[in-house]
């Protein structure tokens, strides 16, 4: 139990460090705003680069933001864990200039699989998307 | 019926044009390699920018590539259509330098909802991910 | 607004009546325990009939229970609405004799699509499954 | 490799035997029509019992049929495997008297997770639903 806590604290510290030099985080300008046991909050500002042929924010960018929160939250509990499945529901569009926040909570973290939920909101607290995912621990004991 | 065909041809031409100046396509270096009635093929080269804290390609990038093929294929049949749901299964990892191809086929294109499937492979034809999505036509008659 | 409220109240009353003579509800012994605006609670007792070749409760039965809560909650707001997509995450197994409860809340009910979430727990409040689904209104105005 | 083949043949034989006395199969009148390495075909006749308050076939029954093919196909390769996630897209309605067929193919069967796809058609070959799922092997080596 104490060992378990220590390991989680180590994961959290290690992930926080990694996040500062993570190529994709810097490329997509995603910021790890919070990280704790089974929880991560990641923010992103919607720029012109993220607009698609409809003239609205590309869904893939919303999914990338959700996935980033998912990756950090899952790996805080079991490192290394990789995504097996990820599913996103688009509720409302995001507009240029929006500041989006993705919050992920791990609902179940098992020996063989984990399950997490993500909520994405904009700067006004409006729900933009909900996402869910399954993770697989790589080193199982 | 002839009208239907004309409308699809118009959509395809218009989308091809848009793709050349689409901000997200140029930002993520995704290329629309093929577009026809209910089908799209999009390619992307995996660069260092797309690596995550595990030192492997970020899942969100794979989803973005799949979503791009999905958006073009769906909108070739019914324009404008937006994604309501998107789900991805990660089968194998993508490595730096990989040239990924996403192919999307619309399985059902209804008045109220569409359903599509996407296959992502690498330059050796290896299956990297499978994805599925639901689209909603915005202007329903 | 008042009309909207009236319509929802009518839907709720009509669905409650229907539920008493619904073939699948009686066949699977699912009971509509609560129904209000955008919310439904359905219960089911796990019997020997629902066991599979592993000797545990068949996943399809868990999904059927979740789907029933989903159908009632969605249709309370917009009738008739049909499911376009349904996704279930299995968290813990259900055992013979368990009394399961599925609660569904509609997260978004739009003109063209709805999105709902379902939680299934057992008699001890243990989380058994989480599910999400997309509905399509059949008569759009 | 020979061992692997032997194990799969053993799984297939054992599952075929189980299917004859499986409570849920007999309760829902699902029949295992074919079972081979990573593939299963299950059939079901739609009866009055399966109708819902809309007067159409309950989606949960379609999911149960899909799940049954999924369970057999997955367990033919790795036994015991359990479902972690299952997702269904409803393409067309099923009517009373329809004879539905669910075919499941395992796309990936890994040490830590499996991924499968299911197609449900009616007696005329019309596509009724598509489903996908993730399985987790219980005894990992």
Would you kindly provide a written description of the structure presented here, covering whatever features stand out?
Four copies of one chain form a homotetramer. Chain A is of the alpha+beta class. Chain A has a single domain, classed as Thiol Ester Dehydrase, Chain A (Roll), CATH 3.10.129.10. The first copy, chain A, is 30% helix and 38% strand. Chain A contains three helices and six strands. In chain A, strand 4 (99-109) and strand 5 (114-121) form a beta hairpin. In chain A, helix 1 packs antiparallel against helix 3. The two termini of chain A are 15 Å apart. Chains in contact: A-B, A-C, A-D, B-C, B-D, C-D.
Summarize the structure.
Chain A is α+β, with helices and mostly antiparallel strands and 141 residues long.
Which descriptors apply to this entry?
globular, alpha+beta, 141 residues, Thiol Ester Dehydrase, Chain A, homotetramer, six-stranded antiparallel sheet, 6 strands
Give the C-level CATH assignment of chain A.
Answer: Alpha Beta
Write the CATH architecture name of chain A: Roll
Assign the structural class of chain A, choosing from mainly alpha, mainly beta, alpha/beta, alpha+beta, or little secondary structure.
alpha+beta
CATH superfamily of chain A: Hotdog Thioesterase
